[in-house]
Write a structure and sequence with these properties.
The chain is mainly alpha-helical. The chain has ten helices and three strands; from the N terminus they run αααββαααααααβ. The protein has a three-stranded antiparallel beta sheet with strand order 2-1-3.
């Protein structure tokens, strides 16, 4: 048999095909998921577990003055957060994976933002990522203000100890595929509450703090640099991004598998019914996100970046 064109392995062993590892990883994940489901369903046959689920059905106690329903501002906030976070993840991965940038941007030091030092040259990909970050932070500040002004914070901030056993109850119900009753118009289940709390008050600030530490805006001579080195920021920033990716995937799956029309009306139409308005608004928002994803290319970014700085190669 001819061996022309084949590159022998140095160890004499056959090199596994590149698709083998992803296939084995997916297969292992499916096996683990199946075992978790079987274990959860078996646990639910035990009388002590059934008593626990009866005592803690999955919803934590809310304060008596907790608001009911979702105001309209949450709909457009949800869209803006979705639009920005998707593009932030895309641009962040571009910054990480681009070996040799083709275009660089240098801030115009005669504009609104002026500094004593000479502005540093950064890649176009990093400029886009930082610009999106700034918009996301600004939008986040508006979200925080409205969240506390309108009292909606009590829906995602645990205020009673029973959130923990109820979260365990919700997790067990999800794992057994006999899911807890959904009524997010009045009260998230405890697992949702904890997850949203982590997203809004832990993951988002972590992404901002670590991203700021990695940026050129961070002072090199700051006293905190020894206690908070850039290597630590990098070690936290990527897992935080992966957390957001996993949250988005699980969030979308649960929205469509637990009553899509009603959930989408909650999120986009500020109404509690099963009409079609929320779905159409969602479809429109997806079109805008996809358009933003496709237009986030150097040919379209260069003219925008050129408005606030100098482009070079």
């Amino acid at each position: 048999m001819s061996t022309i064109g084949k590159k022998p392995s140095r160890t004499g062993k056959a090199t596994p095909p590149p698709w083998l590892r992803p296939v084995l990883t997916v297969a292992a994940a499916l096996i683990v998921a199946a075992l978790v489901v079987l274990l959860a369903r078996w646990l639910r046959t035990l009388e002590p577990v059934q008593d626990f689920l009866t005592r803690y059905p999955g919803h934590s106690t809310l304060p008596q003055n907790a608001p009911v329903g979702f105001p309209a501002w949450m709909g457009w906030q949800h869209f803006l957060n979705m639009f920005l976070i998707v593009l932030i993840i895309r641009s962040g991965w571009q910054v990480r994976s681009t070996g040799r940038p083709r275009t660089f941007w240098t801030r115009n030091n005669k504009g609104l933002v002026k500094t004593k030092g000479t502005p540093k040259k950064i890649s176009l990909e990093l400029w886009f990522h930082l610009s999106l970050d700034a918009l996301w932070v600004l939008n986040g500040l508006v979200f925080y203000i409205l969240l506390f002004v309108t009292g909606q914070w009590v829906r995602i901030v645990p205020t009673h100890w029973d959130v923990f056993p109820n979260a365990l109850s919700s997790a067990l119900q999800y794992a057994s595929f006999d899911w807890p009753l959904e009524n997010s118009w009045t009260n998230y289940n405890a697992l949702q509450m904890i997850t949203y709390f982590l997203v809004v008050f832990v993951a988002a600030p972590l992404a901002i703090i670590t991203g700021l530490r990695m940026s050129n805006a961070w002072p090199k001579q700051a006293r905190i640099n020894k206690a908070y080195p850039i290597e630590l920021a990098r070690a936290i920033h990527l897992p935080t991004m992966l957390f957001f990716v996993m949250f988005i995937i699980v969030h979308v799956v649960l929205v469509f598998s637990t009553g899509a029309l009603r959930n989408l009306n909650h999120m986009y139409a500020a109404r509690d019914d099963t009409g079609w308005l929320g779905l159409w608004v969602f479809i429109g928002s997806v079109v805008v996100v996809v358009a933003g994803w496709l237009l986030a290319r150097p040919i379209f970014l260069r003219p925008i970046a050129g408005l606030t700085g100098k482009l070079s190669r």
